[in-house]
Amino acid sequence: VFAVAGALAACDVVGGSKAPSVTMPSLAEHGARYFPITAPGSHDQQSCDDCHGAFDTFRKFDCVTCHAGTAGDATALAAAHAGEPDFPDLADPDRATSSGRCYLCHSDGTAAGVDHATRFPIAAGSSHAVARCSQCHVDAANRKVLGCAGCHPHEQATAASQHSGLVSGVEGYEFTSAKCVRCHADSQVTPVAAHLPFSLTSRNHDGQDARCLKCHPDFRADKPFGADFATASCRGCHAGAHHPSQSCYAAGCHPDGTAQGD
Ligand code: HEC
Ligand code: HEC
Ligand code: HEC
Ligand code: HEC
Ligand code: HEC
Ligand code: HEC
Ligand code: HEC
Ligand code: HEC
After folding, report:
1. Distance from the alpha carbon of residue 237 to the mean position of ligand 8, in angstroms
2. Quick one: which ligand is closest to 62's CA?
3. For 203-217, how does the pLDDT look when each residue is reduced to its tens digit (9 = 90+)?
4. C-alpha angle with apex 181: 178 to 187, nearest 5 degrees?
């Protein structure tokens, strides 16, 4: 391969203006342009032939023989991908085609590289970079079943807890993972004390009335499991006796949740 590449490169140079069209990528270039094969990635121990050896072109490669045989169990691999519509048939003898599917989702050689930011932040540097896929996704067949509560200790809404400013119940705090992710869809935290100018600590809307989901009942369009905090509704409590045709907040009449602020 080196000899042929060298010869072709030489031909090109001799031929004049064209840059060499066949070159051997350095390991770093291979990582940047095709697939990482150096540490700290998982593929620094693999030889060129492990991926390319079965083919007569470097454009083809085999991920499946190793992952569903030599270095991994096909059943476990299939289970980790249950529900992925593009996951290939591992029994397909055409390894180039099935491996191309792996590469579509894992072109950086990691599982974390799957674009997860649109769902929940788990990238390096985030609080949840330490979490394994299976700790949040406790049901391999349905990734909407979450395991947030398995990791975070049970937090009753007591004075000492992280949720002390919140009432427990349907529109408030509940120890279920679907509720965690509804209030923390970006892993964001909005302290009760920082909910200004609309105060959740003054007498009108504190305690029992500081139920986040009573005022924010809608779901986000981009994350259908998360509460849409950009919109607020007051009608759940204020039935409209005073000004039935007005939205209490949208008109900017009660920006801090008091009548004094008018
Ligand atoms: C873990 C698997 C793996 C290993 C190991 C590996 N490669 Fe690759 N290689 C790939 C993948 C994936 C591509 C992308 C192919 C594509 O996009 O067509 C690639 C692309 C290439 C290409 C560019 C092919 C083209 O598109 O023209 C060359 C050349 C190449 N590899 C050479 C090597 C050499 C030499 C080694 C050993 C030093 C090596 N590879 C090791 C997976 C691997
Ligand atoms: C449609 C995108 C997609 C395709 C195609 C795909 N993967 Fe994945 N892969 C994922 C996702 C998402 C996960 C995380 C699964 C989980 O643990 O919930 C993952 C996880 C993995 C893991 C870590 C498994 C574990 O036990 O945590 C490996 C290894 C892997 N994939 C290899 C492969 C191989 C090899 C192929 C090709 C046969 C492949 N993937 C095809 C998306 C894909
Ligand atoms: C010669 C064996 C071998 C080949 C070929 C191979 N891998 Fe791997 N791969 C491994 C090993 C070993 C690991 C590390 C242990 C593990 O996580 O399963 C790994 C890990 C992974 C992971 C999980 C990394 C993580 O973040 O945990 C993914 C995804 C993956 N490989 C995808 C691929 C893809 C895509 C190809 C083909 C381009 C490929 N592998 C080719 C052996 C191989
Ligand atoms: C800290 C928790 C957490 C971790 C860790 C995590 N996820 Fe997720 N993931 C989520 C949340 C939350 C959603 C959105 C669930 C929903 O749509 O209801 C999600 C959604 C997904 C989806 C889309 C599910 C669907 O049906 O639309 C995929 C695929 C996925 N995750 C793969 C992965 C992979 C691969 C890993 C490991 C690399 C991983 N997740 C690790 C929390 C996590
Ligand atoms: C593997 C265990 C684990 C799982 C599973 C997990 N977390 Fe976390 N979470 C952590 C760790 C560690 C931190 C960092 C702060 C700490 O030390 O308490 C954290 C922090 C947080 C924070 C505080 C803000 C931040 O980003 O630091 C929120 C909110 C949160 N997690 C929500 C969730 C939600 C929602 C889920 C489910 C989708 C979830 N967690 C699943 C371990 C986990
Ligand atoms: C009704 C909305 C709501 C629900 C449901 C909810 N939280 Fe929270 N969470 C909050 C608010 C608001 C705070 C900030 C409290 C304060 O300090 O004012 C918070 C604080 C936290 C913190 C502390 C973050 C820090 O850095 O101080 C963690 C961790 C956390 N929540 C995780 C969870 C988990 C895990 C669940 C599910 C068991 C959950 N939350 C359910 C609204 C909610
Ligand atoms: C009594 C009603 C009420 C309650 C209870 C309430 N909010 Fe709000 N919230 C509002 C109003 C009003 C706004 C301003 C909305 C606007 O700008 O249109 C707001 C704004 C927000 C915003 C800023 C949204 C943005 O995009 O600018 C966040 C985040 C938020 N609330 C989170 C919470 C959380 C978390 C809780 C529970 C601790 C909570 N809210 C409880 C009424 C409430
Ligand atoms: C969870 C129930 C609840 C929700 C939702 C709610 N409020 Fe209130 N609100 C109260 C209670 C309780 C009081 C005090 C008793 C009263 O005046 O009815 C109050 C009082 C008020 C007052 C009168 C304060 C005063 O100083 O006299 C205003 C103004 C007000 N709310 C505005 C709003 C606005 C704006 C929203 C929507 C963003 C809202 N409230 C949503 C429960 C709620």
Report:
1. 7
2. 3
3. 788 887 889 999 999
4. 165
